[in-house]
Amino acid sequence: MCGVAGIFGHPEAANLVYLMLYALQHRGQESAGIVSANSSTGKMKEHKAMGLVRDVFDERIIGDLRGSNLAIGHVRYSTTGESSSKNMQPILAENFKGPIAVAHNGNIVNATELRHKLEGDGSIFQTSSDSEVILHLIARSKEAKLIDRVQEAIGQIRGAFSLLILTNNHLIAVRDPFGFRDLVLGKLDGTFIIASETCALDLIGAQYIREIEPGEILVINKDGERLIKPFDKPDHFSFCVFELIYFMRPDSFAFGRSVDGFRKMLGRELAKEDIKEADFVCPVPDSSNQAALGYAHESGIAFDLGIIRNHYVGRTFIEPSEKIRHFGVKIKLNPVRQLLNDKKIVVVDDSIVRATTSQKIVEILKNAGAQEVHFRSSCPRIINCCYYGIDIPVKDDLIASRCSDAEICKQIDAATLKYQTLEGLRRAVGEDEDDYCYACLGGSEYPVPIPEELQKIGKIL
Amino acid sequence: MCGVAGIFGHPEAANLVYLMLYALQHRGQESAGIVSANSSTGKMKEHKAMGLVRDVFDERIIGDLRGSNLAIGHVRYSTTGESSSKNMQPILAENFKGPIAVAHNGNIVNATELRHKLEGDGSIFQTSSDSEVILHLIARSKEAKLIDRVQEAIGQIRGAFSLLILTNNHLIAVRDPFGFRDLVLGKLDGTFIIASETCALDLIGAQYIREIEPGEILVINKDGERLIKPFDKPDHFSFCVFELIYFMRPDSFAFGRSVDGFRKMLGRELAKEDIKEADFVCPVPDSSNQAALGYAHESGIAFDLGIIRNHYVGRTFIEPSEKIRHFGVKIKLNPVRQLLNDKKIVVVDDSIVRATTSQKIVEILKNAGAQEVHFRSSCPRIINCCYYGIDIPVKDDLIASRCSDAEICKQIDAATLKYQTLEGLRRAVGEDEDDYCYACLGGSEYPVPIPEELQKIGKIL
Amino acid sequence: MCGVAGIFGHPEAANLVYLMLYALQHRGQESAGIVSANSSTGKMKEHKAMGLVRDVFDERIIGDLRGSNLAIGHVRYSTTGESSSKNMQPILAENFKGPIAVAHNGNIVNATELRHKLEGDGSIFQTSSDSEVILHLIARSKEAKLIDRVQEAIGQIRGAFSLLILTNNHLIAVRDPFGFRDLVLGKLDGTFIIASETCALDLIGAQYIREIEPGEILVINKDGERLIKPFDKPDHFSFCVFELIYFMRPDSFAFGRSVDGFRKMLGRELAKEDIKEADFVCPVPDSSNQAALGYAHESGIAFDLGIIRNHYVGRTFIEPSEKIRHFGVKIKLNPVRQLLNDKKIVVVDDSIVRATTSQKIVEILKNAGAQEVHFRSSCPRIINCCYYGIDIPVKDDLIASRCSDAEICKQIDAATLKYQTLEGLRRAVGEDEDDYCYACLGGSEYPVPIPEELQKIGKIL
Amino acid sequence: MCGVAGIFGHPEAANLVYLMLYALQHRGQESAGIVSANSSTGKMKEHKAMGLVRDVFDERIIGDLRGSNLAIGHVRYSTTGESSSKNMQPILAENFKGPIAVAHNGNIVNATELRHKLEGDGSIFQTSSDSEVILHLIARSKEAKLIDRVQEAIGQIRGAFSLLILTNNHLIAVRDPFGFRDLVLGKLDGTFIIASETCALDLIGAQYIREIEPGEILVINKDGERLIKPFDKPDHFSFCVFELIYFMRPDSFAFGRSVDGFRKMLGRELAKEDIKEADFVCPVPDSSNQAALGYAHESGIAFDLGIIRNHYVGRTFIEPSEKIRHFGVKIKLNPVRQLLNDKKIVVVDDSIVRATTSQKIVEILKNAGAQEVHFRSSCPRIINCCYYGIDIPVKDDLIASRCSDAEICKQIDAATLKYQTLEGLRRAVGEDEDDYCYACLGGSEYPVPIPEELQKIGKIL
Is B199 designated active site? Predict the structure, then answer.
């Protein structure tokens, strides 16, 4: 779970990438970085740091990156592994053939195997990130042309990868053959823009052109763009359905559909054959707003905002040592007491992972006076981990992998609990339902085979 | 526009005030501070800094403030005056009679006059804040008892003040006779809590008791609480209606009513005799969500989220030097293109001040494909400045003070524009409608006379 | 022990004061600050922070202070009291009569008494520094003219004070009637410069004019300078002899004499009737270099550098938890092993306070192979504390107040130990010997009476 | 010009290395770093940052490094190349065979050639430092044993290198066959210590054992130490004479001699057949103190301290914009006016590079009243650059490479100027005079051939 953005040939390249990173911030809050290049001088510059885009960049830093006409950027979400400044992206390597940088969204499942081989051959790694492997494979290639080196490198990696590669005169976009993560192409003032989500294009006023297709390598240089499709096409694609359900911004247009519209469909599916009478349908803001609206529309129950989200709270806050009634969720989600009092409500959340948050939400609502709380999850039961880049805990921590709905309902102390069904989800997806990956939901196989050692750990290294 | 919170007699006093400041953060983002006291040792400690609560305090700082059983805190909104670290609150003064601290929400209209007199008598000021005047008046009093010194000091100030005063064995709450700003009393584990809004009580699980009444001085010490009402009661109170319309958090219960409910009433009033057919009613998140819901309910038009707010954007961001199509509002408010396309929508915003934001919102929506944008303001036309602590610009900058509705509608390029009427507002307020101040809306006189020099400037110094 | 510097009427005022603070850094390393004023606009600016001049100021800060033609600066040595950012100087107070700032070197013995009186009359203090009292006394004065207010204020304080007072059009220098601390007047490009030591004048190329005389108030404004001598002249002055012995820089010219020359005289006096044969005389660099040279010249013994000082060590360093052979002094003073081996040496140090450092020096030298270490102190036995601004510990911590020379010699494990005699010191001072204060050496009375409460504590508050 | 220190098998390893870096700080002030290893867990940790040892490490950081029993450290002097945080040392590389770190003092003359080859083979470099080449060569080796991999790597590099290599169970010291830079072995509490200079051993109370010999690879692990000498012994060694003249600390014992004693010999040599009458000999503190003492002893002229060094000045300070009489040197070197007035003095400096500093010193002394200033350089004329790690400017910037003594004397405005002769230097060195490198002084060939491209540039890349 990361976000990438790139631009080729614009005098404000670094500044525009910086703005796009704001639009992609929901995809990763741990670190942010930009590498820019000046195609005349051949110079590349970088800046990256731990923290949010607003804290990582300032006037002086953006000023330093200016004067470049090429740039790529990255926001990083720390998955289960190390949260370390070493793993910030983009990763830039200097080389007498010229500098090269990479920004990666996804997860390479054979990274450990490739890394061992490279280290055995004498390569030195500076990070524990799977993304660095790509740079080494490019550097190791004996091919004369950059594009051939990239192609040889990409041919060796397996898994989910939506990549941007930058040299001082090329911007290359790569999307794996299964298409796990989206990558979109846009245009602004005649220059090409590439980003993880369309909301980044919208922000800078760029026009949406098309998706980078699964299995596509798009090479952009001063002579224009060139498309390569070196991979065998799989039987079907494996778009990550969880991106649509939870991760993307509702104003994005992804995998050929409106995220906002999709989530409302999820809400409608949930509402079918469900409660028709309640005081109101309440979202857990902001991530389930759309599903809750869909539920309300379908059921005819009123929509209302029974919970207010406090957006000023940072990653951490200091609890009183007596741990006065478990803060955790409470400081971020605040109930509207007068609205909830004595009410029967349907709460729609996007998903249930460990159920600890769900439990606190129910507690908050009931403490604020709610009489009945009916809990609904717009996502089906999550029962498997993800090896392709979504930060889902190991199986044992997934409540749905070990408890029945009734048990979970009891644990979170709700009046009733209902999950989206796999069928409902597939109906919401519609006709290209087989082009999605449902592995974490038990709805499909893992499309790219998982090395045994990863299977044992049950998560990404 | 500031927030205050205090607690008397709890072993986690400083930590609880810190958490309450999170709940009050919407009332001021410029600086935050806490002064704590240990009633056994008589020691007082302080920490304050520019920035948000999450940035001002860390584990070590809260640790330093621990071991105290009394504390007050403050979040500051910089009004038109200086934004300076000198003006952070609470203000603490050491004195051989014992240290004393004050945290102030409001604005003292005769501060300049009092300051000149005090300086003339040899007092030295460390800040340019009107709040420091209060400390000097207390220090100057010849009365023997603290409470008499406070009473003498308070008797000299005019304007809006909801104050907390802390010594090493007293917590004193003061609210001006007109009651401009709210101040509420709660209880937790048998100890008294005071805060600007009930949402702060809710957060720490404190029970709401009652408002500190207009004109009340509540003195809390180890012997219990004692109430003084030294002021003449005015004919009617002057609760700030703008707090309800815009400033407070919707989950607060203020001036005896639910803020959420009040805002829905505003929406309903707006919808009466207005458009009945449109594709949907759209709020400008998050401040007008409730009014938009009220409008939707009354009009029967669907409610939908056509705009997504990006909460990751800080105070400033760096625009490209070519100022690519005016960022300003755009980076924070993102349209949901697929939802808006070809639609007729009613946008409900909380208020219109300069109309520059309104104009950009309309532009954003239309660029995203909206066919018709009908703009509604849940607040009546703002035509006068505020001298009691709300940061409203000088009259000339208030568009409604110099343009007709038709002119404003044209400027913001909306299909139609409609403001809340003063009558609608009064209906929403209900039976105690005369106990509110509507001066900025031209709906009432300024209840406390404004010194001529302030009238000339047309704003708070 | 602090340093002050000021300048009136130079376009580079703040920058020159900043440079002078570098030359005065040895007088105080805890905090540094500058207040500058522009006599045209009347604006005053300040910057102060904990730390060394090199860390407190940077290009941007000096840039902010530029555009001023008046400035004063201060470096602070934290005496026994609090080391706190609240006590940084200069102290600036805003006032409708105009801003005023003060920078103080010395100690006011009746500060507590004055402060209690001022607080009783309603003044609020922001610091725990005795220097703030001066500002309050000036503010409290009912006199119309600044100079009369200053004179009234100064008339009430007792003790050691070499002050600079700055308004937006005046620079005022004040030295107490006893003249404890030096204050010198210089000229650069036709403008007046005042500083604690002549080395500050030398650094910026200013010409030395004369000392500010004991009991003098020198008022400088655009009409020139004016000298007031409002105090009764005491029978004799009380220049601080310890400043000459230890505290000042050897390249300064102070109390009418060369510090370098005086210290060599101290060395010569020590050498009289002392050892004539040894391998070499060794200073404890850098503070006793001159005394050691004097000793060497008088005795005919060679001078050599058996100890190297490491100037890279900061205030603190982290010792191994096993405290491998007591670091303390060791990390700063490094013996030259090949030079010391098997040698008989005379070590000349500037003074002996607690004797812990002396003990470590002897240990270091002997561990490095020295056969005989003869320890000499260029300062007589220190047996009393100082109430006038020199940071000498309480009497009980002064080894010479409770041990004989023989006992101290045994404790520091030297072959022999010899102190300067009071007679030797007086001979080094020469004809104006009665114009010095020797109170800490038991060589004179305390010239300004010490309040009983201070006498009890045995140090400055 | 860097410093290295290492320790094997001590529970306080990281803390002791940290203290040794203080003793080596004069060898590099740009950055400092430590890598520590725990031989039980196999874990390695690192911390490095730009700045002085006192600023780079704090209690928490040293605490983090604790629990390790192996450690190496490095202080870096930025030579002509980039001053960048990327080039901080030690350099640590993680590898599935185990982590490995290197700290390097010296300069590898064939680094560029090796790097091009390695990059051509697909290695990725993270720094622009020549030292990283060593790590890559080790990583590339196909040998099974660490020591064989190190030996294969070292066999490929040419130039000056005194290296420490650390794994989680080995500490390896390497010194090039010519022995350019010193590296000494000591023992503390039964554990081995290695450092660039003996002053680091002295500081922590370690016993000096011997030098790591030129061409020696010393491998220390839990089974003890093992010495390898894989290189052909050259006809003679090439110890850097400039280390003795200028760079080392006077209390070090290096290349088998006392640095203090050597510098006094240089002073004595200078004094032979030179002025016998002057008021005093004056060093430029602190680097020429010993040479000046030697001169004074030989000539019979008195030694005195006419210049005081201000150690509080950092790397930069802000000059007034009018550049009041050229600060540069002035702020650090302060003349003792009363001592210099009307005097005839011999100034002994350690060396003359560009002569700009020399010129300012003469100016300072004369402005302070000196009548005659005779300038002496303890180092012979520097006419060539150094390719082995000493930061000497390109030939054109070396004044002695293009001007006669008379011309230089005129430029610095001295009464007379005299350089050490090559013969004098060789006499001071004594019997092993042929085991030194005098290339920068034109006194010998460059012992290791310099690649043509470096010769063209005339300096290290």
Answer: no
Q: Is C340 exposed, middle or buried (0-12, 13-18, 19+ CB in 10 A)?
A: buried
- How many structural domains are present in chain D? 2
Instruction: Please answer yes or no on whether B317 and A202 come within 8 Å at the CB atom.
Output: no
- In the block, tokens 């192609």 appear at A151
- Residues B415, B381 share a domain: yes
Using a CB-CB cut-off of 8 Å, the residues of chain C touching D16 are 320, 324
Task: Give residue C64's identity as a one-letter amino acid code.
Answer: D
Sheet holding B372-377, edge to edge: B280-283, B344-349, B372-377, B416-419
The secondary structure of C411-461, three-state, reads HHCCCEEEECCHHHHHHHHCCCHHHEECHHHCCCCCCCCCCHHHHHHCCCC
Q: Which tokens sit at C91?
A: 């102290």
B81 has pLDDT over 60? no
Is it the case that residue A124 has pLDDT exceeding 70?
A: yes
Q: Are residues C101 and C207 in the same domain?
A: yes
DSSP string, C101-114: EEEEEEEETTHHHH
Is C123–B123 a contact, with Cβ atoms under 8 angstroms apart? yes
Rounded to a whole number, what is the distance in Å from the CA of C133 to chain D's nearest CA? 31
Copy the structure tokens of residue C10.
């130079």
- Has C386 been labeled as part of a binding site? yes
Same domain, A208 and A334: no
For D363-386, what is each residue's pLDDT tens digit? 999 999 999 999 999 999 999 999
DSSP state of C246: I
Contact D22 C293 (CB under 8 A): no
pLDDT tens readout for residues D260-286: 999 999 999 999 999 999 999 999 999
If asked whether residues C22 and C164 sit together in one domain, one would say yes
D317–chain C nearest CA distance, Å? 7
- Given C2, C199, C282, C385, the catalytic residue: C2
Residues D230 and D266 in one domain: no
Which chain C residues are within 8 Å of D293, Cβ to Cβ? 303-305
CATH of the domain at A131: 3.60.20.10
User: How open is the CA angle C135-C137-C141, to the nearest 5 degrees?
Assistant: 120
For residue D145, the 8-state DSSP code is S
Look at residues C199, C234, C269 and tell me which one is the last residue of a structural domain: C234
Q: Which residues of C touch D60 (CB under 8 A)?
A: none
| C196 and C343 both lie in a single domain | no
Structure tokens at B412: 């913001």
Phi/psi-derived region of residue A449, left when phi > 0, alpha when psi is between -120 and 50, beta in every other case: beta
Q: Under the phi-then-psi rule, with left for phi > 0, alpha for psi from -120 to 50, and beta for the rest, what region is D149?
A: alpha
Among A93, A123, A126, beta carbon nearest to D139? A123
Contact B12 A322 (CB under 8 A): yes
Assess if residue D453 is contained within a domain. no
B94 falls in which pLDDT band (50, 70, 90)? confident
* Alpha carbon of B259: minimum distance to chain A alpha carbons (Å): 9
Residue B347 sits in a domain whose CATH number is 3.40.50.2020
| Helix-strand-coil split of chain D, %, nearest 5 | 30, 25, 45
> Whole domain around residue C17: which residue ranges?
2-234
Residues C126, B122: C-beta atoms closer than 8 Å: no
CA distance D243 to C288: 29
Considering CB atoms only, which of D253, D324, D339 is closest to C337?
Answer: D253
Determine contact, residues D365/D347, Cβ cutoff 8 Å: yes
Q: Which residues 185-204 of chain C have a CB within 8 Å of chain D?
A: 188, 199, 202-204
CA-based diameter of chain C, in Å? Answer: 73
Residues above pLDDT 70, as percent of chain D: 96
- Tell whether A287 is within 8 A of chain B (Cβ): no
Query: Is residue B18 within 8 angstroms of chain A, CB to CB?
Result: yes
